[in-house]
Design brief:
It contains six helices and twelve strands. The strands form two sheets. Strands 1, 4, 5, 6, 7, 8, 9, 10, 11 and 12 form a ten-stranded antiparallel β-sheet that branches. The protein has a two-stranded antiparallel sheet with strand order 2-3. A hairpin with a 6-residue loop joins β2 and β3.
Length: about 280
Amino acid sequence: MVLISLLSLWAGSPSEIALQEENSVLYEQLAETRDVIVELDEQISSITEVDNELYRSMLGIDPLPEDERLGGVGGADMHSEYDVFQQETSELLRWTAENVESLERRINIQKVSFNELQEHYNENREKMGHLPAVKPVNGQVLSGFGMREHPVLGYQRHHDGVDFRARIGTPIYATGDGVVQEAGRRGNYGIRIIIDHDYGYQTKYAHLNEIEDGIEPGTEVERGQQIAESGNTGVTSGPHLHYEVHQNNQPVDPLNYLFADLSPQEYREYRRIAEENPMSMD
């Protein structure tokens, strides 16, 4: 009996031992929750980045300042009730509570932003139909916009568009409403189509295999309409689609104009591939 009493004093009563084990399990669950919160925070950061740099930029809306997006709060200590716990547990509980509240604020702010974007889109629906806002082909990005090594000529030069994977004969679509400006063979571009979308926008589709019947200069086309089939004409290292977007006669990064067709996750993946490949297809 004395031995049992001494063990209880040293290790604690059965109820105390059970409580310690329960607390240990709860702490581990909180630590796992922390990892989930960090992942959610990264996802929201990605969404807000796309919102500011793509959606708002394309629609001509001022980006939301970072401090406004974070929705910070100040003042009194809102979580002093956690001070009764051990320091390690108290710090984890504080961190969890503060970051959950931050996520809630940021999500609410993002909802407001998306509502603003929707209202602006509804007010400018005609213009939005002309913007080159979808993918021109159902294919993965191979190379991006910017300085790239030419695979045939062998030197660095500015790549004015994006290269998409596309087997010969793959359907090519107009990315916005507009009027065909050019349709035919053009030097290193091979068979090429240029569409004027008004509002200062043009798109170019190069290395085509053939052009759809009726697609010629002066033809009106709609977003999503098939205009050609992909090919390997001109100077290339293999079949693909070379796609360009021009704004006010200057080439701009086409990836920034796929906001109607890509989720934030897909955009990040396309951006990663485009930036990591140092060589273009043409």
